[in-house]
Amino acid sequence: MKRAILTAFLLAVALGAPQAWATTVVAPGNVHAEQPQVPGASSKRTKAGKTTFDAKYRKVYALLKNDSELRGKIQKVARAYGIDPMHIVGAIVGEHTYNVDAYDRLQTYYVKAVSYLTSNLTFAYDGEDISDFIKRPQFAECAAKSGSYDIWECREAVWNQQFRGRSVGGKSFPNDRFSATFFQPFYAGQTFGIGQLNPLTALQMSDEVHKVSGLPKLDERDPNAVYKTIMDPDLTLPYVAATLKTSIDAYRRIAGFDISGNPGITSTLYNIGNPEARAYALKVENERRRAAGEADKVPEENYYGWLVNDKLAELQALF
Length: 319
Description:
two-stranded parallel sheet; two-stranded antiparallel sheet; 17 helices; mainly alpha; about 325 residues; globular
């Protein structure tokens, strides 16, 4: 599936990625009558914590309900990025229901953020720092890109095409995601903060957040600053918003779907990542369907987005 998405993305880029048809508004609510299956890793992690998905949902719901300051921050950031605050809420709820428990108080996130200023972090694999790795000749094409999002998207594509699971210059590289290989100095699969962002996503969104919120740009050579940004709610919420807005813009521009009224879809994309590649794949699929006289395939929520839409009325009532 991931290979098919990447192939569609590369094909669209090679053809110049023409505009999709007229925009179709995706209605609120779920496509699936029942929740899609939750991955085993999420179930195992929740069971290991001696809790349940419902208990974890109730915990993050209580954090939102009891903290008017947090709700105010979410509303303010949503206005700045021109999105419904429910998109941000959906991402937070989904991550803390299926990833890790929410802290009881927002203040705990601030305390954790400060701790990363004194940690000795590196973004590296097998002794090779990311800042040196991206100087390899295979990444030369990315130098022509402008903006942090396009640059890091290009670098991730080069990783997938030329390094992932391969031996290059006598050095073997794991068959794993770019973010998992170079940007997780503690343990695989880690994400942190109220938005549970990974460092690569934060680096991708750096220019957009700098432009809209005026925050300092992030640098892969300063992992401590990246992790502090991820953990500090005042810094990370703009990155969450920018990530969600990127998905909304990509699906409108590339696939011809307006998903701005469906937090379950944006939450799904927040969970699985690569919104542009997925939008390209959907565009290619629908071009095939139209040529065959078939109905368009619409964006669908996964297990994570399904919960967000299912609980949307309860969450909206908090705001």
